[in-house]
Design goal:
This protein is of the alpha/beta class and about 210 residues long. Helices cover about 45% and strands about 15% of the residues. It has 8 helices and 8 strands, in the order E-H-H-H-H-H-E-E-E-E-E-H-H-E-E-H. It has helices spanning about 15-20, 25-40, 50-60, 65-75, 80-95, 150-160, 165, 190-210; strands at about 15, 105, 110-115, 120-125, 125-130, 135-140, 170-175, 180-185. A 5-stranded mixed sheet has the order 2-5-6-7-8, with helices on both faces. Strand 7 and strand 8 form a beta hairpin. Helix 3 packs antiparallel against helix 4 (about 65-75), helix 3 (about 50-60) packs parallel to helix 5 and helix 4 (about 65-75) packs antiparallel against helix 5 (about 80-95). The radius of gyration is 19 Å and the shape is globular.
Length: about 210
């Protein structure tokens, strides 16, 4: 009796995975996609930033200006404490840059599914911020030690803006470099048509690598 054939894994990427992919060059792209495919097949993966994001959202929602961020360092598992200690100062600085804590509120964002050619990419901001002057921002957090590259920043902001009607209507996409407390917005001279063509080519290559990694 022959074993049933396994169902092939359809190509798929999260926003984080795809933007990290476009940031790579040459053979490292194939290695990276192969790793994503194996991770998907094994359903492995752990997010060490979960409690950090909850604390940051709590500070926005309860207008507490960083109290929850400071406190989360003491309650997170010891193995993650150095990571949180490295993240808190920049996150607190960004929080303070938003102005009076009473003048901002947490806004609910929704995930969206972007299609880049035949490649589905999950668009998942971490949360939204609503200002008392009516402005809203959909926020994606960048946790890496290195700052976001221009390529990953453009890809993230473009894909979020492309699906903002579903994510948080009328909001502006923002990528926050947590460690440096810096908010990145789409450059005023950005050309969406050029970015779209570039990302379509990257997505086609991603699909091809995914298939050959099977």
């Amino acid at each position: 009796m022959t074993a049933p054939a396994s169902t092939p894994l359809t190509p798929y990427a999260t926003l984080l995975g795809f933007t990290r992919y476009v940031d790579r060059t040459g053979p490292t792209k194939a290695t990276f996609v192969g790793g994503l495919r194996k991770q998907r097949a094994s359903r492995s993966g752990f997010n060490p930033h979960g409690q950090f994001v909850k604390a940051l959202k709590a500070d926005i929602a309860f207008h507490t200006g960083g109290i929850h961020l400071t406190g989360v360092v003491d309650v997170v598992k010891p193995r993650w404490r150095p990571l949180y200690q490295a993240l808190v100062p920049g996150a607190t600085a960004w929080l303070h840059s938003l102005g009076d804590p009473a003048a901002i509120d947490l806004a609910q964002t929704r995930d969206a599914l972007a299609m880049l050619g035949d490649l589905p990419v999950k668009i998942n901001p971490h949360f939204g911020v609503r200002h008392n002057d009516g402005r809203a921002e959909a926020v994606r957090l960048h946790f890496d030690e290195a700052p976001p590259s221009e390529e990953s920043m453009l890809a993230t902001l473009h894909l979020m803006a492309r699906h903002m009607d579903a994510v948080l209507p009328h909001a502006e996409p923002v990528l926050v470099d947590v460690r440096r407390g810096q908010a990145h917005r789409m450059p005023t001279d950005a050309k969406p048509e050029q970015i779209e063509r570039w990302l379509a080519g990257e997505a086609a290559a991603f699909r091809a690598i995914w298939s050959t990694a099977a």
